[in-house]
Design goal:
Length: about 170
């Protein structure tokens, strides 16, 4: 009678349906010296649970996380770069020009070449960005197609199962 109730409790335990009281009853049974031979594996499992419950973690766990000051230093460096960028031209002086037309010929030529190179870089970058957008649209369409193909495959499996059931029922008749 006791063995039968233990087997029922073990079945519930395996399915994760036992209460704490039922689990305590199982622990008490498996801590005994004599256990049914076909339940020996459960005895070892419950002994393991009892042993691990008695183990202690002795290593100290630090409660304060270490502070990282890297973000503070990055912000300090960024402010320094901005200040240098603003102050160096004013301190060193130099001529200031209001428009491109006021620049000397050589500087104007360099300015126009730089503007042309940046314009070309921008157009190439925009072309590449549109190509990436096209690829993402193709990828999305491909994924949708693959998903629909899996639905068709699943439909085919279900149909095959139905056909096999009909064939087996006809063969039995």
């Amino acid at each position: 009678m006791v063995l039968n109730s233990i087997e029922k409790l073990l079945e519930k335990y395996d399915n994760g349906e036992t209460t704490l009281k039922e689990e305590q009853h199982l622990k008490e049974y498996f801590t005994q010296d004599e256990v049914a031979p076909h339940l020996e594996s459960y005895k070892m499992m419950f002994q393991y649970f009892n042993n691990t419950k008695q183990e202690l973690y002795t290593k100290d766990v630090p409660l304060k996380p270490r502070k990282s000051y890297i973000y503070q230093w990055i912000s300090v460096a960024a402010v320094a770069v901005l200040m240098l960028g603003i102050m160096v031209p004013k301190v060193l002086g130099g001529e200031t020009y209001n428009s491109v037309a006021d620049l000397p010929d050589e500087e104007r030529e360099v300015y126009l070449k730089t503007q042309k190179a940046l314009s070309m870089l921008s157009s190439n970058f925009n072309d590449a960005a549109s190509s990436v957008n096209t690829l993402s649209l193709v990828s999305t369409s491909f994924n949708k197609g693959a998903e629909k193909a899996s639905h068709v495959s699943e439909f085919g499996k279900t149909t095959n199962r139905l056909v096999k059931k009909k064939k087996t029922s006809k063969n039995k008749n």
